[in-house]
Amino acid sequence: MEKIVCSKCRFENKHTRNFCEKCGAFLHAANFDEKVYALPEVKMMRVVDNLLHVPHEPISWDDLTDAYAAKVEKLNALFKIPGMGAENNSAIVQKINDFLGLCRNPDFQIAFVGTIKTGKSTLINALLGKNYASMAVTPETAALTKFRASPRDYVKITFYTQSEWDKLWASRTSGAEAFMREYEELDGDKHKATWVNHAPINKFMANDEIQEELKIWSSSKRAEHYFVKEIEVGISTLGKNFPPQVIFVDTPGLSDPVAYRSELTKDYIRRANAVFVCIDAQKIQSEEIKTIASVFSFSSDAKEKVHIIATHWDVLNDPEKDWDEQKNYLVKRLTGKAFYDEQETAAKNIMHSAAFIYNLCRDYDSLDKKERISLRKFALNFEFELPVDLRKMMKTTNVDEIMRVIRENLAANYKKLLAQEIQNKFMDINYNLNRVTKEKKDSMTELLSASQSTTAELEQKIREQLQKCDEVRTTSDQLKEIIKKVKQKTNTRADVICGKLRLKLSQR
Ligand SMILES: Nc1nc2c(ncn2[C@@H]2O[C@H](COP(=O)(O)OP(=O)(O)OP(=O)(O)O)[C@@H](O)[C@H]2O)c(=O)[nH]1
Ligand SMILES: [Mg+2]
Question: How far is the centre of ligand 2, averaged over its atoms, from the C-alpha of 428 (Å)?
């Protein structure tokens, strides 16, 4: 089939196209004099042509999402046409990209947050079935770490860019003295040149090597962690009971003296599909309530996504009785304006955990002497026999119940929740595009009146088309139909213009 070569970028276009697929230039410029092809009507043809040729990346997991994504791809193409508004509205461009990202990679992110040493990493390790994340007694998780199921085991490390590092450095608060002392002790500045702006490192490895690799990048004992923005861990051994879309995010804590880093954690809380706030069951005081309140304040759009996990349950004096009382107190304290809307949700979302004991039971055959003693103490307290009662002991730690909630309540509802989220985000994009294009319409109208063509008929047609273009943005259901009509009209009009020009030329 005959091709049309673009005079601007030399790209070979299909003969049916009016505008270059690559650079968007008008392909029939040779047939028009400059004044004519600068007409708004020809610009409209370009809009229409672009919309008709937007490629669609099919989404297989849900038909409705596939339809929404196809619409947003078209709106995106429309918005990005020079002069349509994208250049001055980066926030909307970001929303559109996030939306398409969500449709294509529907991850369910669970952020584990809390103050330092509340047992976040221990709980994550219990849920993952192996000790991947480091759990030393001194503050340990210093870099945000994501865990996900993957066909191959890998660790991917992303580093701060120079400008991110500059912002981080400038955001040290007055409480950052200890941070500065440690930074100097670990000779941070010497390592800075190597790691700031470093390209991401993606390492495939054996499952048994993950734990050691993580220590290098996330442990507060090594200088490298200062420059790590995020770590992602792919795990091949999670088993078929682990929902493949679920991602655990281990966070370095909310009370970071470097504001930029706690902002990153807050950002994750806002974006996460569920948040597990870990608090130490032994110390439920006003500080802990404050932490929980701040998590609710970042999750105001979906309070039920917040879950409270009271860790160290096994260390309570009388775990079962004490926890009963504590839970009653928490349910009442955490229902109300800044917290859960109803006591029922609070009762459902507040859970206890003794993940430390769970992990000891799981690894019973390879425990060292000290660990065996810890486990024996717990067994004694509950009158369990070792090793026959290992399964029963694991049950009391509540870890299996937390995993059940993740699997049956969160992951299973995920598709439903996601569909709702996708719909909300789609409406939001539509609303924002509408707002921007309303402003645009005024400038388009100005463009019209300043245009060379003054015939009333032509202006009327263009107005109609602009109005149709608005409809395209608002009622995307009829998108295709309208585009077809506009294209027919513009083509006919272009033919008339071309015809007139040719006639003029032949009369010379
Ligand atoms: N007895 C008991 N100890 C626990 C429990 N959960 C955590 N621990 C202990 O508490 C300490 C801190 O646990 P981590 O899991 O490292 O806590 P974290 O919140 O990840 O700590 P950072 O990453 O440093 O903020 C470790 O010594 C754990 O063994 C629990 O349920 N019971
Ligand atoms: Mg940790």
Answer: 36
Tell me the sheet residues that pair with 307.
276
Token pair for residue 79? 């918005």
Quickly tell me which residue has 């039971």 as its tokens. 361
Give the environment of ion ligand 2: residues with CB less than 5 A: 120-121, 140-141
Residue 158 carries which side chain, given as an amino acid letter? Answer: T
Would the pTM count as exceeding 0.90?
Answer: no
Indicate the class that CATH gives domain 108-354: alpha beta
Among protein residues, the one with the nearest Cα to ligand 1's atom 6 is 119
487 and 52 Cβ atoms separated by less than 8 Å: yes
Over residues 347-375, the mean pLDDT reads 97
Q: What would the mean pLDDT of 242-270 be, rounded to a whole number?
A: 87
Q: Ligand 1, atom 7: nearest CA belongs to which residue? A: 119
Percent of the chain scored above 90 by pLDDT? 45
Would you say the CB of residue 355 lies under 6 angstroms from ligand 1?
Answer: yes
Closest CA to 28 of 10, 47, 9, 42: 42
**Residue ranges of domains in the chain:** 1-27, 32-104+423-507, 108-354
Alpha-carbon Rg for the chain, nearest whole angstrom, is: 30
Which of 113, 115, 121 has the most ligand 1 atoms within 8 A of CB, as the residue to mutate? 121
